[in-house]
Write a structure and sequence with these properties.
By secondary structure, the protein is an all-alpha fold. The chain is built from eight helices and no strands. It has helices at residues 2-13, 19-27, 30-48, 54-80, 87-112, 117-127, 133-140, 145-170.
Length: 171
């Protein structure tokens, strides 16, 4: 998911859209290294019982803890000085994220994992609002920041209703 998104952003953000250059740029993105390291350590921990040394785990926690707050602060700062955006686009994006994605997840659950606690987790995750990491990527690649920032706020407001409804249903 995230790797493909970053690749697409890298591909279209370069003046000459070339696959090899985008792949080279993708390797330079710290987020990709974080995803790969997390995946690797997860496999080592799950299958081989290897644990991170305490000082590394504590350092990662210290670095990761303020990341969300900083991203939210950047979003808030951007929203303060924002320009007008087409709300039709925002609502269309939110419709896909807040309504269509959970419906598609529900259909997939019916086929692949009915009556399972994991199915409820997948459904709730699909219904969550747009993540602030979308704004971080839009800011980094200077791509539709107004649309993304407004969509995150709108999606969060819509999710108050959709998640409440979903919680009621899943009880």
């Amino acid at each position: 998911g995230m790797g493909l998104n970053i690749f697409i952003l890298e591909y279209y953000s370069t003046k000459k859209t070339e696959v090899l250059g985008s792949l080279v740029n993708l390797i330079k993105v710290p987020t990709i290294w974080g995803i790969l390291a997390g995946f690797g350590f997860s496999i080592l921990s799950t299958y081989y019982g290897v644990k991170l040394p305490l000082f590394i785990a504590n350092t990662l926690t210290l670095v990761a803890t303020p990341a969300s707050a900083v991203a939210l602060f950047a979003l808030g700062t951007f929203m303060y000085r924002r320009t007008k955006v087409d709300m039709k686009e925002v609502l269309t994006l939110c419709l896909f994220k807040n309504i269509l994605l959970p419906v598609l997840a529900f259909i997939a659950i019916l086929f692949f994992m009915p009556d399972n606690i994991n199915s409820k987790i997948v459904l709730v995750q699909a219904a969550m609002p747009m993540a602030v990491s979308n704004f971080v990527l839009a800011e980094k690649y200077n791509t539709r920041r107004e649309l993304i920032s407004n969509s995150i706020i709108t999606s969060t407001i819509i999710s108050l209703f959709t998640l409440s409804f979903l919680t009621f249903i899943l009880k």
